[in-house]
Design brief:
This protein is an alpha+beta fold and 257 residues long. The protein has one domain (32-219): Beta Barrel (Cyclophilin). 12% of the residues lie in helices and 24% in strands. It has four helices and ten strands; from the N terminus they run ββββαββαβββαβα. The chain has helices at residues 56-68, 95-102, 192-197, 241-244, and strands at residues 16-19, 22-25, 30-41, 44-51, 78-80, 84-87, 120-123, 135-138, 155-159, 204-216. The strands form two sheets. Strands 5-6-8-7-9-4-3-10 form an eight-stranded antiparallel β-sheet, covered by helices on one side. A hairpin with a 2-residue loop joins β1 (16-19) and β2. The protein is globular. It is found in: Nucleus. Residues 1-20 form the signal peptide. Residues 33-164 form the PPIase cyclophilin-type domain.
């Protein structure tokens, strides 16, 4: 007997298709936003494209920070060949913007149709609802990335990967104890720690952001507010992330991103 889902009686933008006795809810088209983020660096210019329907909470945070200049002149402080390039510790004098970057945001659902490739961009988190401002660019396809909800991709490098991103200085290796790169805690005190001790590391110059509306095909995105002290559901601790960080677990490690 062929059973018809009552969901077919609801008028939505999707199409209900019956195949081999099963009701399939076809993906609907809707308008969504993308952001083209063009950044100058000490190696040249590259472009990232962020997709809001991949990760609405992550997208909104990243676009707001890039528009505000949060990442301008900050270093790519963790560059590990065949692994990742990480950034996200700001030198801005804008106290409100810096505070915004410290606030944790809720995880977005993992998109099964979006996979990690070389150049994929995601947040470097340490657990559920831990994303703040730290982002990384994947240097490898899939691997250990993408299995945790805080690793939902938000975009990808669309121009300049080989010419710029792949050439960021990686000679210091990973952070201790896996390499001789910088500790992360001292970077929060300003650029001098890296400039004095790791002078070859590359950095952003300035970035510009262009947003535009396009057609999406994933689940229509719904963003949620940042996590803060007033969160009635207790999704996450809201203390300053620097106070919670340690040298080997403060963000994306070899076992956790």
């Amino acid at each position: 007997m062929l059973l018809f889902s009552t969901s077919c009686l609801v008028f939505v933008a999707s199409v209900c298709i019956i195949l081999a006795g099963e009701v399939v809810l076809a993906k609907s088209e809707y308008e969504t936003e993308i952001a083209l983020v063009t950044c100058g660096t000490t190696k040249g210019e590259f472009e990232m494209t962020f997709f809001r329907d991949w990760s609405p909470n992550g997208y909104d945070r990243a676009v707001e920070l890039f528009k505000g200049g949060f990442y301008d002149h900050s270093h790519f402080f963790r560059v590990v060949p065949r692994f990742l390039c990480q950034f996200g510790i700001s030198y801005t004098d804008n106290a409100a913007l810096k505070s915004k970057g410290m606030k944790q945001i809720r995880d977005d659902p993992l998109q099964k149709s979006v996979h990690f490739e070389q150049g994929t961009i995601s947040y470097a988190g340490s657990g559920p609802n831990s994303r703040t401002s730290h982002l990384f660019i994947s240097f490898m396809k899939s691997g250990q990335f993408g299995s945790n909800p805080w690793e939902t991709p938000i975009g990808k490098v669309t121009k300049g990967y080989d010419e710029v991103v792949a050439k960021f200085y990686a000679g210091y290796g990973d952070m201790p104890p896996w390499g001789k790169g910088p500790q992360q805690q001292p970077i929060y005190d300003g650029p001098h720690y890296i400039e004095d001790n790791f002078p070859k590391l590359d950095k952003f110059l300035t970035c510009k952001v262009e947003t535009k509306v396009t057609k999406g095909s994933n689940v229509p995105p719904v963003s949620e507010p940042d996590i803060d002290e007033e969160d009635p559901y207790g999704f996450a601790d809201t203390s300053d992330s620097r106070d919670e960080e340690s040298d080997d677990s403060d963000d994306a490690g070899h076992d956790e991103l």
